[in-house]
Design a protein that fits this description.
By secondary structure, the protein is of the alpha+beta class. It has 6 domains: about 160 residues, endopeptidase domain like (from Nostoc punctiforme) (endopeptidase fold (from Nostoc punctiforme)), CATH 3.90.1720.10; about 80 residues, Immunoglobulin-like (Sandwich); about 140 residues, Trefoil (Trefoil (Acidic Fibroblast Growth Factor, subunit A)), CATH 2.80.10.50; about 80 residues, Immunoglobulin-like (Sandwich), CATH 2.60.40.10; about 80 residues, Immunoglobulin-like (Sandwich); about 140 residues, Dockerin domain (Type 1 dockerin domain, Orthogonal Bundle), CATH 1.10.1330.10. Helices cover about 20% and strands about 35% of the residues. The strands form 12 sheets. A 6-stranded antiparallel sheet has the order 1-6-2-3-4-5.
Length: about 725
């Protein structure tokens, strides 16, 4: 057993000696090759499998790494080649200025330092590592640092092959097994990256709703990084590194601009700015009524008869009043209160100048409007094209200027006010009535309300809403505030509706009575009085009460009269009459004076002396030729309706017995009352005055006046007649 252990130990010792000899021979060979003068040889065409990033330090490491484990023969080098390997990597990376091509390690070291390189204490990727022999002080090998601990180098002997190999930067020894000192050199790498150019930025719209996602697209030539800057109302709110398709949720309304900076290791470039705006739809409530006024003109917009929309002077009528109905998508349907039609973008078009009209509700995006606060007012944004807004054509403030669609520019032509105060709401009018009669219309007046399309007047004969209306006029134009109607006597109740498409506001109810007009007719031949009055609507029976005017005592009453007239006799005196119907309608008091003192005369007695003689013929002819006025009942003896010479000849023939006419000489009642000395059909103070002038002989009377002045018929005209007439006048009043 002991013998076997001794044999094993001898074998292990022999192997250890052989391995040590091999190790030392490898390093000795490497050192000897590195120190020998060699010719420069480039084999870069045999390098494969690499890609270039444009960053020199990265490219140096990547090129070398791609050749790992390739042998001297595979790469084509024929002499010691560690410096050539580094030089070829630099050549491929485009860094020949920073690492001048050299096949000798010591010369390469000097060349790199002369090119601006410098030694460093800690290695980074792309640094060169030179190995210094601690015994001789000479540089014997060179490699490239892959990172701060690992190097890669050519002409590295492993398993008896000279090859490219990665190794710890500390694992290089001379031929005697002494560890070589690593010296790190950082070359003055030159950038091969071209300058950034062609930087661009776009945004996926020009108008966005607050809270929505805004997406950008961007790019540039030769850039390897991007930073976006976003400003709101001139203030920076975002500076952020981004990719080529960044998105942001923007919650605050305002005017935005953005640009992108594209860069690489050698340069950067800004794009042109893009501009857009973000608005927040206002929630103004729903189901309210308001005017829409252009703030600059301070005039409302309104619909026209052909369903267009224009700027108009305020008239307070329904085509200028709008109903706002908020929708679930934060838009509004805006309805005209005259027609009920919606504010509408023609055919859902988006071009500048597209007409804005009113159109029947079709629930399209052309009729859904966002409302956004702007410059102390509001802009109206159609959902179908949110980059455009409602606009006053040309900014004109003239009546009739058209309302159109136009891209947002924030001018006064696009800023509107929404005025929905109490004074522009449809309200109930206040109705008043002035009753008429048979000669005058009943007048209806009402106060102006706001936002009406028309008025509707409804009249009931009796209580309102009981049965069908007696009268309806449902087409009274807007802004018309009065109506005159001829109504039959009766009791009425009436009101007026102020109406637009959405509302009907009823006024107060006014009750009133149209009273019948009563007329009197006196038949002096029958000494009777006839009353006539207008029929009262829905009345069947009437009652007539006659009162003494002085005492209010009921003098006469007639009931259950089926017709609108009656006759009766009354003594001379002053009275008033009231006619009532069985449905409660009373006439006004009608004053009536009864005076049956009609003058009597004889046909043909022209001088009123009680006889028909030649004097009457002569007086008749005299008055005719001079145009003097005569009583027709007396002077028209031939009864042809005229007073002329034929009457004189006719009267003469009768007196001469040539004509027998029973009418001549017949006593008649004149149409003139005793006491009416001026024959004006009224007995008043004027008659008394003229009579007194006659009595005082300051005035002459005609024969007819003398007959009328003898009021008491005593054959004498004196102060007694004047007194009696005055008493009559007093009783009549």
């Amino acid at each position: 057993m002991t013998k076997h252990i001794k044999n094993l130990c001898l074998i292990f010792l022999s192997l250890l000696i052989v391995a040590s000899s091999t190790f030392f021979s490898l390093n000795v060979y490497a050192a000897q090759i590195a120190d020998e003068p060699v010719s420069t040889q480039s084999r870069s065409w045999n390098f494969t499998g690499y890609s270039l990033s444009g960053t020199a330090s990265v490219d140096m490491a990547n090129i070398a790494q791609a050749q790992n484990n390739k042998t001297q023969g595979q790469l084509g080098y024929t002499e010691a080649w560690c410096a050539n390997f580094v030089s070829d990597c630099a050549k491929i990376a485009g860094q020949e200025k920073a690492i001048p091509f050299n096949g000798l390690v010591s010369s390469l070291y000097s060349a790199v330092l002369n090119a601006g390189g410098y030694t460093v204490s800690y290695a980074e990727q792309g640094d060169l590592v030179f190995y210094k022999n601690p015994n001789t002080g000479g540089l014997m090998h060179v490699g490239i640092m892959l990172n701060n601990t690992t190097a890669i180098s050519g002409n590295y002997w492993l398993y008896n092959y000279s090859q490219v190999c990665t190794h710890k930067y500390t694992s290089y020894y001379d031929e005697y097994g002494t560890k070589c000192q690593a010296i790190f050199v950082r070359p003055n790498y030159q950038s091969n990256t071209p300058a950034v150019n062609g930087t661009w930025l776009t945004v996926n719209g020009s108008t966005f709703i607050a809270g929505s996602t805004v997406t950008f697209n961007l790019g540039a030539n030769n850039a390897n990084g991007y930073t976006i800057g976003i400003d709101k109302d001139g203030t920076r709110i975002i500076t952020q590194g981004v990719g080529t398709n960044p998105s942001f949720v923007l919650n605050e309304p305002g005017n935005y601009s953005a640009y992108v900076t594209a860069g690489n290791s050698v340069s950067y470039q800004d794009s042109a700015r893009v501009y857009f705006r973000v608005f927040r739809p206002e929630n103004l409530g729903t189901d309210f009524y308001a005017l829409i006024l252009n703030k600059n003109a301070w005039k409302p917009i309104g619909s026209t008869d052909d369903n267009n929309v224009t700027l108009q002077s305020e008239q307070g009528i329904s085509n200028q009043l709008w109903k706002f109905e908020r929708q679930s998508d934060s838009t509004y349907e805006i309805k005209n209160t005259k027609t009920g039609y919606n504010l509408d973008v023609y055919c859902c078009l988006s071009a500048n100048g597209t007409n804005i009209q009113v159109c029947g509700d079709n629930n399209s995006t052309a009729q859904h409007w966002y409302i956004s606060s702007e410059n102390g007012g509001y802009v109206f944004i159609p959902k179908c094209t949110i980059n455009s807004v409602m606009d006053l054509t040309g900014g004109s403030t003239t009546d009739g200027s058209n309302i159109q669609l136009y891209e947002y520019n924030g001018t006064a032509a696009q800023i509107f006010a929404i005025y929905g105060q109490d004074d522009v709401q449809l309200k109930s009018a206040v109705l008043s009535v002035i009753p008429g009669n048979s000669k005058t219309n009943t007048t209806f007046n009402w106060t102006k309300t706001y936002g009406e399309s028309y008025y509707s007047l409804k009249i009931w004969n009796g209580k309102e809403l009981v049965g069908e209306p007696y009268y309806i006029d449902s087409n009274i134009p807007q802004n018309t505030l009065a109506k005159e109607i001829q109504l039959q006597p009766g009791y009425y109740e009436a009101y007026v509706d102020a109406v637009n498409y959405f509302n009907c506001k009823k006024s107060n109810t006014v009750s009133f009575t149209v009273k019948p007009t009563v007329k009197t007719y006196i038949d002096k031949t029958k000494t009777s009085i006839t009353l006539e009055w207008e029929q009262v609507l829905n009345a069947k029976l009437y009652k007539v009460n006659i009162y003494n005017k002085d005492t209010d005592e009921l003098v006469l009453s007639k009931e259950n009269i089926e017709t609108a007239d009656c006759s009766f006799a009354l003594p001379n005196g002053s009275y008033y009459i009231v006619v009532s119907s069985d449905n409660g309608i009373l006439s006004d008091k009608l004053d009536m004076s009864v005076n049956m003192n009609y003058a009597k005369a004889t046909v043909g007695d022209i001088n009123y002396d009680g006889y028909i003689t030649m004097e009457d013929v002569e007086l008749l002819m005299y008055n005719i030729t001079r145009g003097n006025k005569m009583n027709k009942q007396i002077a028209d003896v031939n009864n042809d309706g005229k007073i002329n010479t034929l009457d004189a000849h006719y009267l003469l023939a009768c007196i001469g017995g040539k004509i027998d006419d029973s009418n001549i000489g017949r006593e008649i009642l004149l149409n003139t009352l005793l006491g009416d000395v001026n024959s004006d059909s009224v007995i008043n103070v004027n008659d008394v005055t003229e009579l007194q002038m006659y009595i005082s002989q300051s005035k002459d009377f005609s024969d007819e006046q003398k007959m009328l002045a003898d009021y008491n018929q005593d054959g004498v005209i004196d102060i007694n007649d004047a007194t009696d007439i005055q008493r009559l006048i007093a009783n009549m009043n």
